[in-house]
Amino acid sequence: MKKISVRTKVLTGTVAAAALAAATLGAVSASAEATDTPSAAAAVKADTQNKNLAQTTGLTIAAATKAAQATLDAATKAGQKVSVAVVDRDGVTRVLLKGDGAGPQSPESAVRKAFTAVSWNAPTSELAKRLAQAPNLKDIPGTLFLAGGAPVQSKGAPVAGIGVAGAPSGDLDEQFAQAGVEALGK
Amino acid sequence: MKKISVRTKVLTGTVAAAALAAATLGAVSASAEATDTPSAAAAVKADTQNKNLAQTTGLTIAAATKAAQATLDAATKAGQKVSVAVVDRDGVTRVLLKGDGAGPQSPESAVRKAFTAVSWNAPTSELAKRLAQAPNLKDIPGTLFLAGGAPVQSKGAPVAGIGVAGAPSGDLDEQFAQAGVEALGK
Amino acid sequence: MKKISVRTKVLTGTVAAAALAAATLGAVSASAEATDTPSAAAAVKADTQNKNLAQTTGLTIAAATKAAQATLDAATKAGQKVSVAVVDRDGVTRVLLKGDGAGPQSPESAVRKAFTAVSWNAPTSELAKRLAQAPNLKDIPGTLFLAGGAPVQSKGAPVAGIGVAGAPSGDLDEQFAQAGVEALGK
Amino acid sequence: MKKISVRTKVLTGTVAAAALAAATLGAVSASAEATDTPSAAAAVKADTQNKNLAQTTGLTIAAATKAAQATLDAATKAGQKVSVAVVDRDGVTRVLLKGDGAGPQSPESAVRKAFTAVSWNAPTSELAKRLAQAPNLKDIPGTLFLAGGAPVQSKGAPVAGIGVAGAPSGDLDEQFAQAGVEALGK
Amino acid sequence: MKKISVRTKVLTGTVAAAALAAATLGAVSASAEATDTPSAAAAVKADTQNKNLAQTTGLTIAAATKAAQATLDAATKAGQKVSVAVVDRDGVTRVLLKGDGAGPQSPESAVRKAFTAVSWNAPTSELAKRLAQAPNLKDIPGTLFLAGGAPVQSKGAPVAGIGVAGAPSGDLDEQFAQAGVEALGK
Amino acid sequence: MKKISVRTKVLTGTVAAAALAAATLGAVSASAEATDTPSAAAAVKADTQNKNLAQTTGLTIAAATKAAQATLDAATKAGQKVSVAVVDRDGVTRVLLKGDGAGPQSPESAVRKAFTAVSWNAPTSELAKRLAQAPNLKDIPGTLFLAGGAPVQSKGAPVAGIGVAGAPSGDLDEQFAQAGVEALGK
Amino acid sequence: MKKISVRTKVLTGTVAAAALAAATLGAVSASAEATDTPSAAAAVKADTQNKNLAQTTGLTIAAATKAAQATLDAATKAGQKVSVAVVDRDGVTRVLLKGDGAGPQSPESAVRKAFTAVSWNAPTSELAKRLAQAPNLKDIPGTLFLAGGAPVQSKGAPVAGIGVAGAPSGDLDEQFAQAGVEALGK
Amino acid sequence: MKKISVRTKVLTGTVAAAALAAATLGAVSASAEATDTPSAAAAVKADTQNKNLAQTTGLTIAAATKAAQATLDAATKAGQKVSVAVVDRDGVTRVLLKGDGAGPQSPESAVRKAFTAVSWNAPTSELAKRLAQAPNLKDIPGTLFLAGGAPVQSKGAPVAGIGVAGAPSGDLDEQFAQAGVEALGK
């Protein structure tokens, strides 16, 4: 998904509606965005000014899958049965893998560790220590302050979080998550 | 948030942990990402390869607030009491305004209309018509197939959705949402 | 919304139903209350006695938006990326702003801090200290006992709460919330 | 709760914090707002400008209880076993009564009917008819488009909703709700 | 918990279906159980054996309302703004009153205190002390270990719980709840 | 629903607290009601007046288990893989059995059918037909209007519901549920 | 459910669709898997390679029911009123019994203890002790770290969990759960 | 995970507790089952009888990932932006991939289509047609009756479901899901 220059013209809603109606003549279900063809562009209703836009950096699904797989492989190599999650900077899950034999608590635990790591841009083993000073941090919905989550960074900013759960210790979980992070640099 | 060039060096987790420990000496609570200073950058653990990264386009909070305010103003001018929501391409709410006198059902209704508009990149008045062919679309969690939602587009792709609820008809709601979209082009 | 004198006549449900049927001849969707015109008033079914009524004081949406914007501006000026929420005395969110770059945990965290501040009419930094005596207060649904929430008061009574989340410390978050409160006095 | 004039002075957060600390010396748990005494008023941190404030009209708990009881009595007199709910204009439940022998589905059903009636300021028997034109209205969270809900109005504006569930027909349920509305005029 | 005699005859599903079909000729909505008339009894499909049945003791709605009202009156007399809940032995809410000016956190807090009191048949002030020995008791869903809940007992067994929230201390809340319990003995 | 005689003496909260404290000297966790011994009775705080009490009839766990087992056996005999639920008149699940090979949708489906049957005191196959007249009945939370639920009655009143899900048709599901009902009469 | 050899042939979706259409000519509702007849096998669309498959070991419903009943019997014999749950290795409830007189908190508490025991393959009394080292383990959704849960093992691996709640102490609860486990060996 | 023979000896809980205590001397967090070593086997508390056990067939994580990747590749090749889910026979998500540019509604939609396909062992395009006869099937929690879900079968029995959402039509979604199913046969 390359960075796009932004159109400035704003067409009316009426034109857009017509274009959309045309687009729906076939059987239509759960459709995503219109493909970026010239004719579709012609129907654009509200191209916004460049100044209105901001970019959020995230992993491609290819990269997220690569990281998740490397994480799971590290766990398997160590004889551990775990679940692995990769969430983006918005806290949305991009990849979830429930490994063979991983416990029923592990998928949600992995997702929350990943969410926590990307929210504070730090490994959850470090974040768990912060509770000594601010114990109620752990009451923020969606978080889990257990070792096993690691942030993925670009220029120091968090772009994703990797979470692992299921090994006998959170430190082991976090080793696997770090292996996933490192796989992105290879 | 300008587009950043991406570092390629990958430091070890140990170094990162040290840097993070140093960063937590003060009273720390609910902290967001580390500030992008050179010393913080030095601690980067997992700068990823450029090929791993993708950008998602969204509205700045300034633009989203401007659009929401224009939407609410249009409703107020028409004597209607409404709630207004702006959600981003990930479906996350960026702005929510519950207007004076708006009914208790209106905030959630506005959020769902915005979510629906950005998910399918079309006004919800159009999407409601698609149910004739695919009636169960409306069972997808988070959606609401009622007029009142409008997508915000950049080069034809959805970057946000604006949802309005509370006027006596969905068509009125959607007029206000369109006013919000158009305000972004001014 | 000025204080209204209250009609005492009670009309029958049948008359009201007729009026409502008349009001729905156009396309109707998600409509709010009928506009306060004489003809609508004529259809009133159950005007209640004055003694039955009580007033709840809250912020106008204009004031709530002003406060939220001042809060976000204070954070931006300090280089912090935060989310801001304003909730009313009933705990209902009036304004939510997810700032640029604010973490995914921050909107819900901001809402809960605002909810907590308005519920107990005190800054959440103070309320967090009360847990030393009553630790289970924090188990009340909807609350978050972390610094960053501030009450808005009228004659000492709480009329709203402002919550902030995303800065590296709750004390910073609360400074921004206080800036929002103070903006209401300007 | 009479309408209050609004103080304009804004004290600093520091003073407020001190006052709050003083107020918490006793055992404190789940405390509501400070009582409106002169000394408490002296600690007010953020008395807001009059222009910032709006009033929402609702029922007193005495009135809401009276209406709910009259509703339940009407049902009992008719030999029906029902639940009764009164919600305010913000959609918050003020009174809930699960009558003797009322089915397990009835409390939530009553709450939703009341919520729906106050949201659109019309009896739910009327609102159910609107679905012919806007069928997806019923997908708005919190609503139930079944007869049995009636709005309580002041000068035509909705100030509460009464919902009933459990009788063999929604029309019966709504008769009881109307009896509750009418009791407020006596 | 003694047993009642019951009918022993078991009719077939077919007969029952016919009776039910007959019962639905009118407009039918949200209907509760059939009234206990002889003709209805004739359609009984599955009267069970005496040995199959057990009785659960609870409050009548009249008693539950009386207790809730006495509780609220005690709080009002003390100048406190609270919410009051009465739940039965099955944990189901029978009465909920959100008093004038009670905070938004108070209704759910009152319900949970009542639930906790009836679950363990003890005042929640006592139950909170048990956490010293079994701290994770408070993680059981639906509970709240804060003073303010009191059990209603019959022959020592719990038949209901009364919960109060909103006063400046849980001890005050619980005094009001006890006033509600005692009103049942008058 | 006849009433039982009960104790009328009301002891004070102080005495009760003492008794409770004594009862908690051992390791205490998740304790249910005190056993009904004379010494426990001596600590009774709030024995209520006879007029305050009502009885709800339900199945013993022995009967509910017998019915559920008979239901599952009928399904197994017919070569069907199903889940079975028995809920009481308050809608609370008493027995849940997820049979071997039953689909993941079946337990919740069975619970909801049972809930629906006991709420309206009719087989869900009959209730599904009522939707022709009142289509929005099915929007009541907790219900499912699919064949497969059957009420258990005592003197014509519902005392439980049995729900089945997983067979290729709801009619089959309901046959098994009826077999469970009939087993109670043997 | 014996271990099956796996077909390797992959038929096309078209053939499968035809077979499925044929299977739906009768009234069809909530149907589970097709019965394993030769003709059904002929329509198989996607028989997978053996290497793709793994087996998860669990209890039969007969065994799970036997264990749950033995658990409840042990509690009844000891004069305790409890709920009992059996969950499988995937955390899915197989059996739930709410015993006579068991408190409203007990079913969910029993399910969570069973879930916790099977997730970590240890009695919850042991797991509660681990919180001394990793206190945030208890924040993992679905868990409850209170005595009363016991794993069922096959060759040392967890195949189910039994949870009990309602006795005056968790140690008692766990004795009953162990009785259920031991009944499986008889 | 090969099929294991089952031990029959049942050791006591005391021995197991000792073994478990020994296993927890290191830092322990979110640990899964004990590794299957002889010494661990010696501590087995409740090895069950063979007759108590049943096997559930599912995909290995390797197979599930392969199928999900093939599904996503097929969508990408067709220029569509989708999310993909693989759930097992228990309805538990094994793999979730949110593809680049896929809408915010797509992950949950994909999960539900997969859940629906494995629950009824049929493509969701077929299942959607069944609603003509049993329209309320779609009210079963967790389901979504939209084309895009396909079952994975072994000997005709469902062992997994693959769900896809995000393409402009459900038929396209389902083509991609079928590509995933077919990849398992290669």
Describe this structure in words.
The structure is a homooctamer of 186-residue chains. Chain A has 186 residues and is an alpha+beta fold. In chain A, 37% of the residues lie in helices and 18% in strands. Chain A has helices at residues 13-23, 38-42, 61-77, 106-120, 124-130, 170-183; strands at residues 53-59, 83-88, 93-98, 149-154, 157-165. The first copy, chain A, has a four-stranded antiparallel beta sheet. In chain A, 66% of the residues are buried. Chains G and H meet through helix 1, strand 1, helix 3, helix 5 and strand 4 of G and helix 1, strand 1, helix 3, helix 5 and strand 4 of H. Strand 1 of chain E pairs antiparallel with strand 1 (53-59) of chain F, so a sheet runs across the interface.
Q: What secondary-structure arrangement, pairings included, does this model have?
A:
The structure is a homooctamer of 186-residue chains.
Chain A: H1 13-23, H2 38-42, E1 53-59, H3 61-77, E2 83-88, E3 93-98, H4 106-120, H5 124-130, E4 149-154, E5 157-165, H6 170-183
Antiparallel strand pairs in A: 2-3, 2-5, 4-5
Gist?
The structure is a homooctamer of 186-residue chains. By secondary structure, chain A is of the alpha+beta class.
